[in-house]
Amino acid sequence: MGAVSDTIPDRDRTTADAGVALDDITVDFGGVTALEDVSLSVDEGEFFTLVGPSGCGKTTTLRAIAGFEEPAAGEVHIDGRRVTDLAPERRDVGVVFQHYALFPHMTVRENVAYGLRFRDPPGNVTDDERVDELLSLVDMAGMGEREPEQLSGGQQQRIALARALAPGPDVLLLDEPLSALDARLRERLRVTIREIQQELGITTIYVTHDQSEALAISDRVAVVSGGRIEQVAPPETVYREPRSRFVAEFVGENNLLDGEVTESAPPRTTVDGTPITLPESATVDTGDPVALCVRPEVLSLGESEMVSNATTLTATVEHREFLGDAYRVHCSWNDRSLLVKTDSREPPEGTVTLTVAASDIHLLSDSGR
Amino acid sequence: MVAAGRERVNARRWSERLAVPTAFVLTVAILALVFYYPVLSVLREAVVRAGSLTAAPLVDVLGDPFYTGVAHYLFTAPLSIPAGVLDWIRAGFPSVEFGLFGFTAFQAFLSTLASVVVGLPGAYLLARFEFRGRRTLRSLTILPFVLPSIMVAVGFLAMFGQNGLLNDVLGALGLGQVNLLFTLEIIVLAHAFYNAPLVTRLVTTAWEGVDARRVETARALGAGPFRAFRDIVVPQLLPALLTAALLTFVFTFLSFPIVLALGGLRLATVEVWLYARVQDLELAEAATLGTIETVLSLALTYLYLRYEARQTTASGGTTLPRRALAVGWKTLRDPVRIGLAVYGVGILVLFVGPLVSMVVESVTGPNGLTSAYYEFLLDQQATTAAGTTKPLPAIANSLAFGVGTLALAVPMGIVVSVMATRGGTGSRLAETLMSAPLAVSGVVVGLGLLQTLVFGTTVAGYRFTAGGALAIVVAHAVAAYPFVTRNVTPALAGIDSQLVDSARSLGASRFRTLLDVELPLVWTAVLAGGAFAFAISIGEFDTTVLLAEGVESYTMPVALERYIGNRSLGPSLGPATAMGTVLLLVTAASFLVIERLGGRWEP
Amino acid sequence: MDRRQFLRRSSAGVAGLAMLAGCTGAGEGDNGSGANGSSNGTETTGTGADSTATTGSASSGGTLRVATYSSFTGEDTAGNWLKSAFEEENSGTTVEFLTPENGVNQYVQRAKQGAPIDADLYVGLNTAELVRARKKLDKPLFQSIGGSLDGADGLKKPLRIDPKKRAVPYDTGYISLVYNENEVEEPKTFDSLLESRYEGDLITENAQQSDPGRAFLLWSIIAKGEENYLDYWEQLVGNGVKVLSDWEPAYQAYSDGEAPMVVSYSTDQVYYHGPDVDMAKHQLGFLNDQGYANPETMALFESANNPQLARTFMEFVLTEEAQSKIAVKNVQFPAVKDVTPSEEFDKYAKEPPETVTHSYDELAGSVESWVEEWSRLVASG
């Protein structure tokens, strides 16, 4: 538990008008560093997602913001207030956990009203009105007298959300809130969460290991790995311009090809002896090692004259999956495996020609492995 | 942005934040004052002679074959041991004596085994079967705990004696005679009488906390009922079972009145010896024995706590459903239910037998049925003679002290549990020290209280002494709160930390989270610990008589003890058994009330 | 409730609340600790006029604090009778009983630690306790007084156990066997108890903490000699003697038929006689035609607050009336010669043909090692 001090929140230190700001946060667990020098700035009203594989430190980051972990170094600010030394109950954050964490000995209404024991509801409403307001917001009006165990998982999570929002927190923290639910419900509920967030305009930090979920609902995404932040950017940027090999591999599917620059203008490389045209914008020198990211959907089947500056590869179809709206094709090229996604109505088979436009190739800034 | 106006509890914040640490400091202070200071004042005699440290008394005792048997060579002639072992092997492994300590540990081991064997099926019955009177039965399992040993001795004598009820029944069935009195067996049985209910209670509570979904998961994964029990249920019962076994071992290791009353001097334990040394005012030797006992039992406690800390108990979820005990004619064909029926007969013999025998003794005079002993109680109540011990004040005092102890020991125990579950380095050691009241000889504690609080000390020309009702309650609470802690700690540790985190992020302080979320969730364990605390207070004798100021603050066990010495009806234990019956009824009623009232708040 | 008692209670309450409150000046330690100091103050106001009326001793008014064992007081006890009779005879005086659970040890330990001793007189002391009290302390706990007491001349010779005349006997029991003649023949001697026909038949008490148990052990030392008593006991243990904690459980076990012989008192039949009683179960066995006297004595604390009144009380205890009352109520024999407690008592309380006991000098220096060696023998048996 965090150490508790009673210093008045320091407003002098400006961390812009960030909803949440972390400055060089380090968290140790008995000698093991869980977070190292993490800095983040989340805008007010922003939906910000921390995504990464399990054990990467994303939940620890969230817990450091909530006050459940005591950072060994660094500062936490919420709404411009320094809260680093504040106990969780004084930070004005709402938290929703993966397993809902509803109080089993209280009714739904008592759960939602719990935070109102300590804070007045925002706006000029009574506690009861506030609870009803929140229950309607999460589409659970009239369920107040139920016991938590009588509810389905999705309902429990809505109540957990309502409970977290009832006192009108400055920040909403969601820790894998949908992971325990089935796929369809997960997608429905994430829309609900996004809508509510936008309606309330509340600064929200969302933790998930599911990159598609992260891309789907966030204003910005931070990809976390090994206790460090790899990239912070809007979902599109993270997807199209991953900054590191890790981001490229973790977010979405990708074909990563290592090569060496053979020409700098126009930029060209060879991978396993095959020349590949690089985007013109790439500034590279001859002899540089480069790492190419080629998304499966930018590899098109067949030769296309429409595309200038394209590279053509000849590959063999090994295996394919029908996805309904597309085929996912595992190809073999130069003893490498290439993943291709095509919306062709004909099932590809045998030897195929793959075309990729130079502008669809992304070069990783850190080409090293 | 935090608007100060929106905070409802700013004013309470300070006090709430300080509540747990303050309560902890108070608990430690109480413990230091009425436990550590008195106990250490006694035990220091073991290592301090004429103002300087010495190991002589310890070496004297450990090197005395009477106390340690062959182990005395370890302290007198360690170099001769290899040769001695060789001789022993050559002689063909003749039986080896380990002296008074060896015998004490041996009987404690047997008693623990017996308590577990007797107690476990009871837990199974109470946790897994539904039948009429189950809750009542559960409440009453604590009764043996409060009975003064002299009453248990009377009951056992009347039940298992040569002319006892058991032999009458066996004779009528043509099954011959058993002669158990003054044997190791009867001591072990009497220890089981006291401690098997402890096993039953602790394990039942743990069993009721097993999440049915986990068992169902295991079953779904292909585990048969037995495998599911072994892999899922047993690991969750083990901590409770080991707690009970450890407590039983420590209690029976330190046992003395029951050993003396039923076994006699020939089966003496260390504590019997310690008591005799105190009576002879050979305090250094008594302190030495007490120190060795304490070191042994604290070491056990420490090892256990380290084990317990590594166990995780899950709580919450759905409790395993109870099956109906009686299922019509099928009851007679189900081996489990037949086994339970046989067990029930055993329980009748071991528990109901002695208790009923004691009640029967209270209405049986030399010439048959009599109400003389109860009339004696009424006469005592009616008399105006000074120094008379009256039953009603004894009942009132017992209940008042019991309620007071409950009110003090429960918060103390909870506070220690909270600190224990927070963990941190050295917390096992700290917890061991906080559990020490369980593990220190009652005789030593009594002597210490006498020498320190009762005799008092002179500070700045004034003599400070402690005594009276509050001192009694505090001393009872110190003896009782470890039971609360041992019940509550595993339960608290099993609470999903996300529940606590949720409450805190919603604005609840650590203290409010404890009150609003954690305690309601572990209420069963709190209640179980509270019942123990009440029982400890009701049954307590030594400290009560020491700290009583004037002759008025006697309790039921004290009254009972005084009636033993009362000769107005001749040398008869009748009045004492009548008082014992009153004690039994009053405490039985109290436990039903405690559990029923307490159960109301159970979530 | 009288005022004194009220004061004591209320201040005890205060002492309890403050846990370590309840204090008096350390200098007046003899007044007793805590709230008890105030009771003396309130008491003496009422006694000024009366004290002149009391004959003899100058300052017999006031409160006499008597420490004793708990069953000495209460309804229909010797203590209670003594209190009312003495208070009646010496108007203005009050007798208060203190009953510390650990008996005289309480005062030995208090003296050792320099804690105040809150009593004037101790009633119910036996010889071995007197030995212990002297041995454990540098200064005597009790005053030498017996020689100058009225009535001390009449004490029975064998009961005058203390040559220094601190302990004044007021009654005595004689330890003997009680046996059931339906089951066993009378054992006549210590040696006969070793015979196989008595195997497993005898119950005695633990000499470490039981008066009759210790008396029986000491008696066996007289019978067998200091050198041989352990051998004797080894054989007795071999013959299945049962050593129980105290007299009550021992006698209870005897009554329940666990064994046909028990070490008890020669006053047994005072309790058990009459048409309904099977007297065969209450036969007395005076081994070697002896009985071991275990006199109960009283002694005046060195630090007594009211020694004059205490002396008056002790003399009162030795009067013929008190002697017979004590004997009847305590079911013990009078300590003073030629007192007949009652016809019934005379009929059923049996004195042994020969009385044996140890004097203070004989026990001093020996009793502890005798008991310890004996108990080690039994416990390792």
UniProtKB/TrEMBL annotation, chain A:
Q: What is its EC number?
A: 7.3.2.6
Keywords in alphabetical order, please: ATP-binding, Molybdenum, Nucleotide-binding, Transport
Q: Name its cellular compartments.
A: Cell membrane
PROSITE patterns per the record? ABC_TRANSPORTER_1 (PS00211), ABC_TRANSPORTER_2 (PS50893)
InterPro entries associated with the record: AAA+_ATPase, ABC_SmlMolc_Importer, ABC_transporter-like_ATP-bd, ABC_transporter-like_CS, Mo/tungstate-bd_C_term_dom, NA-bd_OB-fold, P-loop_NTPase, Transp-assoc_OB_typ2
Cite a single GO MF annotation: ATP hydrolysis activity
The terms describing its cellular component in GO are:
ATP-binding cassette (ABC) transporter complex
Q: Which reaction does it catalyse?
A: tungstate(in) + ATP + H2O = tungstate(out) + ADP + phosphate + H(+)
Topology versus the membrane, per the UniProt entry? Answer: Peripheral membrane protein
Domain (ABC transporter) spans 20-251
Q: Please give the SMART domains that the UniProt record associates with this protein.
A: AAA
Record bears the keyword Nucleotide-binding? yes
Keyword ATP-binding assigned:
yes
> Which SUPFAM superfamilies does this one have?
MOP-like, P-loop containing nucleoside triphosphate hydrolases
Q: Which family does it belong to?
A: Belongs to the ABC transporter superfamily. Sulfate/tungstate importer (TC 3.A.1.6) family.
Q: What does this protein do?
A: Part of the ABC transporter complex WtpABC involved in molybdate/tungstate import. Responsible for energy coupling to the transport system.
Assembly description: The complex is composed of two ATP-binding proteins (WtpC), two transmembrane proteins (WtpB) and a solute-binding protein (WtpA).
Name this protein carries in UniProt? Molybdate/tungstate import ATP-binding protein WtpC
In its UniProt entry, the species of origin is given as Halococcus thailandensis JCM 13552
Automatic annotation (TrEMBL), chain B:
Task: Specify the ABC transmembrane type-1 domain's residue ranges.
Answer: 101-304, 395-594
Question: What are the GO BP annotations of this UniProt entry?
Answer: transmembrane transport
Cellular-component GO terms for this entry = plasma membrane
| Subcellular locations according to the entry | Cell inner membrane; Cell membrane
Please tell me whether the keyword Glycoprotein is annotated for this protein.
no
Identify the Pfam families for this entry.
BPD_transp_1
Membrane topology, record value: Multi-pass membrane protein
Keyword annotations for this protein, in alphabetical order, are: Cell inner membrane, Cell membrane, Membrane, Transmembrane, Transmembrane helix, Transport
Q: Which family does it belong to?
A: Belongs to the binding-protein-dependent transport system permease family.
Q: What is this protein called?
A: Binding-protein-dependent transport systems inner membrane component
Organism encoding this protein: Halococcus thailandensis JCM 13552
Q: What is the lineage of its organism?
A: Archaea, Methanobacteriati, Methanobacteriota, Stenosarchaea group, Halobacteria
UniProtKB/TrEMBL annotation, chain C:
Would I find Zinc among this entry's keywords? no
InterPro entries (UniProt xref): SBP, ThiB-like
Q: Where is this region: Disordered?
A: 28-60
Pfam families given in the database record: SBP_bac_8 (PF13416)
**Gene3D superfamilies per record:** Periplasmic binding protein-like II (3.40.190.10)
Instruction: Give a GO molecular function annotation for the protein.
Output: thiamine binding
Q: Where is the composition biased (Low complexity)?
A: 36-60
Leader sequence range is none
Q: Name one GO biological process term.
A: thiamine transport
User: Keywords in UniProt for this one?
Assistant: Signal
- Indicate whether Transport appears among the record's keywords: no
State what protein this is by name: ABC transporter periplasmic protein
Which source organism?
A: Halococcus thailandensis JCM 13552
Q: What is the lineage of its organism?
A: Archaea, Methanobacteriati, Methanobacteriota, Stenosarchaea group, Halobacteria
